Amino acid sequence: MENNSMGGSVSLDILEKSGRVGHCHPEVFKAALKQMELLNTNSRFLHDNIVEYAKRLSATLPEKLSVCYFTNSGSEANDLALRLARQFRDHQDVITLDHAYHGHLSSLIEISPYKFRKGKDVKKEFVHVAPTPDTYRGKYREDHSDPASAYADEVRKIIEEAHNNGRKIAAFIAESMQSCGGQIIPPAGYFQKVAEYVHRAGGVFIADEVQVGFGRVGKHFWSFQMHGEDFVPDIVTMGKPMGNGHPMACVVTTKEIAEAFNSAGVEYFNTYGGNPVSCAVGLAVLDIIENEDLQGNATRVGNYLIELLNKQKAKHTLIGDVRMKEKRVLLSVDGPHRNVLKIKPPMCFTEENAKVMVDQLDGILTAVEEAMQAETQSVISENTPCRTKMHKDAHVELLSDSTNDPTENPSRKRNGMCTNKHSLLSKRLKT
Amino acid sequence: MPSARGQVSPRSVSAPTDSAAPWPPVSARRLTLWPCDSGSSALPADFFFLRIQLRLSVAKGNTCMMNKGENTSIASTMWLTIGAGGSPVGLAEWSQPCDGGGPLAVGHCHPLVVQAAHEQNQVLNTNSRYLHDNIVDYAQRLSETLPEKLCVFYFLNSGSEANDLALRLARQYTGHQDVVVLDHAYHGHLSSLIDISPYKFRYLDGQKEWVHVAPLPDTYRGPYREDHPNPAMAYANEVKRVVSNAQEKGRKIAAFFVESLPSVGGQIIPPAGYFSHVAEHIHRAGGVFVADEIQVGFGRVGKHFWAFQLQGEDFVPDIVTMGKSIGNGHPVACVATTQAVSRAFEATGIEYFNTFGGSPVSCAVGLAVLDVLEKEQLQTHATCVGSFLMELLRQQKAKHPIIGDVRGVGLFIGVDLVKDEATRMPATQEADYVVTRLKENYILLSADGPGRNILKFKPPMCFSLDNAQHVVTKLDAILTDMEEKVRSCETLRLQPSSVKHPPGKCTGEERSRCTNCNPGEKGIPDIRGQMAWGLAPPLSYRTRRPEDFPERP
């Protein structure tokens, strides 16, 4: 958890979202070493590990989701999910949420408004964008009587419009909790209603758990389970935390969808996907999550952290909202206006770590507020911290000696940003 | 001369220095693999497994692997057992130790590679949002192997991701959409890549209007053969024609995608000069040349590090994608391109970020693989063993009429089996049979090409001269046996379900009644029926036990 940087100071990594169980967890790399020494091949050759791992994974999921496809990255997983959805009933269109991000591949940029709105790409005609179910800043807010139905209704309207134009919906894809969109937690009941509408239109529901699965939410293993026991997506993609840094990901789906895919006659083959080492690593991570009760830890520490942050919210006017769901702290540096600080630490984050982080944040926010009070002109000078235009790369990495070196930050150079005390990234790690 | 491959030596990884988590060193003997082909049309470096008589049961905690028998009509089982304590099981008489035998470039479980990954894993593994030396070092090492123009690197996790990024780069740079590909090409399993892989899309959604297919530059079976005065120019003109047709319809070409040595298309060696001519036409049309080195890079061709370099020192693609061998089993891949292309991509304002791509461990593994390739001089080795293997195979070609062509470079070789030398009709069934028989002889190989008749040889680079000799000896025996069967019974036909005895046993009147000996097609025996005997019936995966595998003579 604590990295010793070049200068000897200790950094607390609270953004290593793919290092689920902690950096360099010995159990994980021991398992990797053991398997690497023994045999690492590809999935043309059956091996126990892939079978064991598929069994363990499917045990964490509802019974309906029983077929696993292994890939190497969340992007590959989402791409395969799209292929599965399209092959199922031969429909093509996809409904996605605004500000969603599903991956960097060509097919996924097309369904990620977070990406295509920024670049020169335009929205493709087979992509339909529904409003994000954001009850803080969205169309229907917390004062609305039934935001879930309202947002779900938007989806229904989109489906109707698509049908009127002769288009057919293949899938509705959503991150179980939107990350790049600003850590959005959909209101209860939203997913169920949407799933109903989508199924009626002949489509499938894809839950993108690439960032939020594996017990991060504390109470449940998978974020979609927060929405109710009765809610089961048709396809679930998982990634990042699966291998604690090792490149691996997975798509789990139902037998019907898998059979429709296989009946096309062309097999799905992924050279590295499901290789013995990856599966050994995946098994080790599952073991650790279980043995070290990381889910419980997430709950406890999450609660504590949210308490501290709420105190900060009372103290600093800069903080507009502190969102959490089921003990997962959502204070991110993202969102459409790039003003949301995000914290997604590894699950071994302790209460001490939380205290340290919040103390640092307190100090920084106090300094920022003082500086803002001193500002008299509207022109933003070199030294004025930017409140809104933070580069989306700005991870809040807290150093005990808060140095920042603007020349080392290529992202700042790129967009000519002013010095920002919040973005302390790009510390060259000599390890 | 390739380094001598001696006895199996127990290999051990030294105990970690971190005393907080001590663990005993694990030593494991390596099994000898007789690499020919991984059994997959999509795989570059393949490996053979020796089938091991199961004397130690799975219950003893040994790792077992089963070949599920794709590409064959019978799910024959082959168990590979590696004893937990290290000693190979029942392997002695068949094993010829291959130091560092591995699934991809440098051999299974190469200790240096494993060590590098392990050490980095212990220290730090993060993502490329945090700068780390490894990614810089690795990019630098890679750039030393490439022409100077190719100096910007993107790291990813799989060849498919690499090709997808190459497609994005090409489109952003040129502003065009269309892609020209070769027939029977395969570039990956992602949605975007299936669209540009005729090998796949012909069975799925069909050809899209922005994809244009040029004929494979196959001088053995294509429209312009070895007797043509200038096949390179002729095939390149085909590409020019395809481009012109597209332009007439108002379409604009973004890229020409080509595997530097088309693999699933049948182990094709494009004629020298082809790439340069094609690049000329593509550049004139405003597109870029993408060389897919995923299966053939990293010294496999022997003479050069990259297969595109076979086309001439002056030929430099605009984008090169690499994968598979790059990490010796670890999921790594890379795209190398020019500054111009990458600047255009950056100018879109969307950064390229890949969570796992370029992680410290992946880069450490990549560096280790490059080190091993250098230290063990595997490139030179590939040239030597490759030439030797080609020579042996050419001798077989002179001996067996079923072998129509032997082509290859380095350790990338294809053996084209034909029914008839004049017509060059692919011998699909026969190739299938040969593959099965080889498996019986503990050699894993597969067939590819549009006619599924080309035996693919793409072993790990540590494949030795002895391995080569052994494989060819077995192949010779099988082909001889096949020819004898054909000679001894002109009218063979076997019904798989009613096989009672080997064909040819019946004589006279009996033969006309016997379903085993009745005519097959055109004198070639329906040999698949023969597979019903001689091999153990497939049992379910879980119920196999040592007793299920009787001793084989």
UniProtKB/TrEMBL annotation, chain A:
The record ties this protein, via Pfam families, to: Aminotran_3
What UniProt keywords apply to this chain's record, in alphabetical order? Lyase, Mitochondrion, Pyridoxal phosphate
UniProt cross-references to Gene3D superfamilies, sorted A to Z: Aspartate Aminotransferase, domain 1, Type I PLP-dependent aspartate aminotransferase-like (Major domain)
- What cofactors does the UniProt entry give for this protein? pyridoxal 5'-phosphate
Chief location category: mitochondrion
Q: Which CDD domains match?
A: OAT_like
Q: Which domain of life is it from?
A: Eukaryota
Name its cellular compartments.
Mitochondrion
Recorded catalytic activity of this chain's protein:
phosphoethanolamine + H2O = acetaldehyde + NH4(+) + phosphate
Q: Does the keyword Mitochondrion apply?
A: yes
Give the compositionally biased regions (Polar residues): 400-409
- Which GO MF terms does the UniProt record name? ethanolamine-phosphate phospho-lyase activity; pyridoxal phosphate binding; transaminase activity
Reply yes or no: does the keyword Lyase apply: yes
Q: What PROSITE patterns does the annotation carry?
A: AA_TRANSFER_CLASS_3
Its EC number is: 4.2.3.2
Signal sequence, start to end: none
Coiled-coil regions listed in the entry: none
- Give positions of region: Disordered: 397-431
Q: Which InterPro entries match?
A: Aminotrans_3, Aminotrans_3_PPA_site, PyrdxlP-dep_Trfase, PyrdxlP-dep_Trfase_major, PyrdxlP-dep_Trfase_small
Which GO CC annotations does the UniProt entry carry? mitochondrion
Q: Record's SUPFAM superfamilies?
A: PLP-dependent transferases (SSF53383)
Quaternary context? Homotetramer.
Write out the similarity annotation: Belongs to the class-III pyridoxal-phosphate-dependent aminotransferase family.
Q: What's this protein's function? A: Catalyzes the pyridoxal-phosphate-dependent breakdown of phosphoethanolamine, converting it to ammonia, inorganic phosphate and acetaldehyde.
What protein is this chain from? Ethanolamine-phosphate phospho-lyase
